[in-house]
Amino acid sequence: MSLVPFSHISALRCLIIDDMPTMRQNIRMHLGQLGVTKVDQAATPDESIRFVQAGSYDLIICDYNLNKESNGQQLLEFFRTQNMLSPTSMFIMVTAESGYNLVASAAEFQPDAYMLKPLTASRIAERVDRLLEKQHAMLPVTEKMKRKDFAGAIIECDNVLKSAPKWIVEIMKTKGTLLIEQRRIDEAREVYTQALAMRDDLVWAKVGLARCNIVAGQLDDARTIVEDVLAQNKQFIAAYDLLAQIDEAQGNQEGALAALTMSSEIIPSARRSRLVGEVAYRSGHLDQAREAYDKVLKHTKGSLTAQPTDLLSLAQVHVDSGDPDQALRLLESAPRRYEESKMFASAQAAVQAQAYVQLGDTISAQQAFETARQAAGKDISEVATLALAKAAFSMGKDEEGAKLIADAIKSDHENKTLQMLARKVLADTGKTALAEELIDGAVKHCMSIIAEANALMRSAKPDESLAKLEEALNSMPENTGVLLASAQLHLLWMSQRGWNDEYVKRVRRYLATLDRLIPGNDRVAKMHKFLRDTLSKVAPKS
């Protein structure tokens, strides 16, 4: 018996992901009963990735058990971390296992809903109907968020709460997150405290309070809350991430590694193993780093979810562990599609040069080093820069290695992880004594440029101030600190002198670059607000 089409559902564009043809056809039939005609079907994770890359979907229905290599939860994690899904895309997980709610509650990225088999058209309609209702109620908030008007989104949260109180939990979650991003910590604490007054077992509210404490610098208080959450639920992934964040902020790399290792055991995904590998490598635990990156490659072998940096990282670990032959074999096994990346080609050759040095093959080392140089070009990546610097130092090219390290830090002087990796390059090559000159010196150089530009602006020399920063960006176009300073001072110039078409374009370009480099950063969010406020004051009247 066919159902009367739901007009609000029938217009949706849908993607079905299931490795069983009969299940795909079954779901397709149910959607057809609801009047849905725009339906694509994917049998594998890679096929689904290609579909999502090619177009946007309103509704994705995905089976949890896809194949031996990956499952629906890992696919959802990949989509979310790569920002491949629209904020309005609905992701429904389908499973025959009633215990999936335990997986979803522990996971960092949760589906919008999950459904137990067998599915029916009426059950799908009921679930989608509810998601669309919530989506419609939250529309004023999401529209403000799309425009990066986070202060306006917070106001809309209060308005939606009055008009649609049934979504109070969703509204409070969103409002609390927005307040933290705006550094309105006292207000965020109030939201989470109100939530806990309603129900004292709301884990998301406890985690929200912990995040408030981290932002406020009250790390010990944050740790107490996180440890309390884990005492109640040892499976909660977000708590381990916060614990690792607290440990890193307190300089405890061992603690951070332990927390991330535990999270990877709970949800053994490529992303989790990658995080373990990164921290293990930085803290000198090469055996654990090798094991973690091995897992990453196994998780992603032959898949579009594979990342070139994983193979490069594992090869570097082999070199650092004194196993150059294994590093060379691994690099030679790289998929052909990686060759299209300048970053990969340059870093690959740089790691090969290091391996040949260990083998005593100076001719091959020099050839690989030259290949790395040529492949790098002018816009050399961070990964390739560090690998090339390490190769240079290992080959006695100290002056070139020093310049590469200094240039890397100048390109992003606020990046603490980059600084740690640069120090590791110097330590591994016996050049620790150069750290103060190359790393600390580069940081001071960038800070002095920003300080000088600010001083010129205060001295009523705004044109000279902006010219100073534009000159700096010509040589380090992705330095987040300089980009932020440039955006701020250009907006200050316009707030004093009025609208300038060129400067508006520049600021939007700076912020677009920052959104790509440090997505979700609160300082960038504040700069978006500064842009809106400035333009509303100085925009020419039509």
Give a description of the structure:
With 542 residues, this protein is mainly alpha-helical. Among the domains are: 131 residues, Rossmann fold (3-Layer(aba) Sandwich); 95 residues, Tetratricopeptide repeat domain (Serine Threonine Protein Phosphatase 5, Tetratricopeptide repeat), CATH 1.25.40; 87 residues, Serine Threonine Protein Phosphatase 5, Tetratricopeptide repeat, CATH 1.25.40.10. The chain has 28 helices and five strands. Helix 2 links the parallel strand 1 and strand 2. Helix 14 runs antiparallel to helix 15.
Overall geometry comes to globular
At the first level of CATH, what is the class of the domain at 7-137? Alpha Beta
What CATH calls the topology of the domain at 7-137 is: Rossmann fold
Q: Supply the CATH architecture of the domain at 7-137.
A: 3-Layer(aba) Sandwich
User: What is the share of helical residues?
Assistant: 55-70%
Strand content: under 5%
Largest sheet entry: 5 strands, parallel
Please count the beta strands (DSSP E, at least 2 residues each). 5
**Major sheet strand order:** 2-1-3-4-5
Helix/strand class:
mainly alpha
Global mean pLDDT: 92
What is the CATH superfamily label of the domain at 7-137? Response regulator
Given as residue ranges, the uncertain stretches (5+ residues, pLDDT < 50) are 1-5
If you compute it from the alpha carbons, what radius of gyration comes out, rounded to the nearest whole angstrom?
26 Å
Our count of helices gives 28
Report how far apart the termini are: 58 Å
